[in-house]
Amino acid sequence: MYRYVKNVLLKAITFLFKCCHLISRKKILFTDGGAAIFPSVILDATNMISVCDKGILHRGKLSFKGRNNTAEISGFLYKTMISVDGDDCSVLIGRNCSIKKCKIVIKGNNNTLKIDDDTTFGSDCWVVLMGNDNKIEIGKDCMIAENVDIWASDSHPIFGDQACRKIINPSGSIILSDHVWLGKNSTVLKNVEIGKNAVVGTGSMVTKNIPSCCIAVGNPAKVVNEGINWDRKHINV
Ligand SMILES: CC(C)(COP(=O)(O)OP(=O)(O)OC[C@H]1O[C@@H](n2cnc3c(N)ncnc32)[C@H](O)[C@@H]1OP(=O)(O)O)[C@@H](O)C(=O)NCCC(=O)NCCS
Which residues approach ligand 1 with their CB closer than 6 A? Predict the structure, then answer.
């Protein structure tokens, strides 16, 4: 009975918020069971957010400034901030993804963030994508622990000369293949690819590519074991 009342109330609240978004002409599209519960949304006119495939925006903040930016959210976002400031950027968050209390910051033009199905983030992670024509791709069923930083940019320019003519630290893409585990407090910096089934140890700093099926640890992260795989279920030995 309690569960029934709770479900009805939740549906009513969700419906009300859908109506509010429609009334305020925010360009949020809800399809296939997509819903929103108390998110704060700032959307410039030509931007579009679509919440689909049972995706849920639960609280959190979405701010899309600039032109022609799009987001397609099929996963569950709880108290997560997505800030886009630029033109022609896209955000794709796949089915069954779970992202809680994280910050996603995208600045610049034509940048793409793709988080594929079944990938989960622990709280307090940062995903930072800056520059132009840059991308972060995170494959299927990746497990990103708490307080992980994925930075496809250093955020601020460093010049190779005193006259500040040439930037020596341009932004660069990050690609995580399917089923990658990033341990707690780890960091992945720009221009890095991590192969499938790889594990990055807690507190590690990944500055170079990591091959598939390896454990990499330390600062800078180095491979300490090869030919491994891992499972999401809790360990029992
Ligand atoms: C990466 C990890 C899984 C590896 O476990 P393991 O296979 O049992 O590895 P070992 O303990 O045998 O360590 C192998 C070597 O790497 C070193 N090492 C392990 N983890 C390290 C880390 N996080 N940073 C630096 N060095 C590390 C060990 O000192 C050891 O070095 P040695 O060969 O010179 O003695 C584990 O160390 C780890 O980081 N676990 C935390 C995972 C996590 O964040 N969980 C949160 C929930 S999602």
Answer: 143, 145, 183-184, 199, 201-204, 215, 217-218, 224-225
Helix (H) or strand (E) holding 9: helix 2-23
pTM of the model: 0.91
Report the side by side order of strands in the sheet with 61-65.
Answer: 40-43, 61-65, 81-85, 103-107, 126-129, 149-151, 187-188, 205-206
In angstroms and rounded to an integer, the radius of gyration of the C-alpha atoms of the chain is 19
Q: What pLDDT digit, counting tens, does each position of 15-71 carry?
A: 666 555 544 446 789 998 999 998 999 999 999 999 999 999 999 999 999 999 999
Task: Identify the three-state secondary structure at position 150.
Answer: strand
Question: Is the CB of residue 178 less than 8 Å from the CB of residue 141?
Answer: yes
How many helices (DSSP H) and strands (DSSP E) are in the chain?
Answer: 1, 26
Q: How many CA atoms lie within 13 A of 124 on its CB side?
A: 6
* Ligand 1 atom 35, closest CA: 224
Ligand 1 atom nearest to CA at 230: 3
Report the alpha-carbon distance of residue 101 to residue 99 in Å, rounded. 7
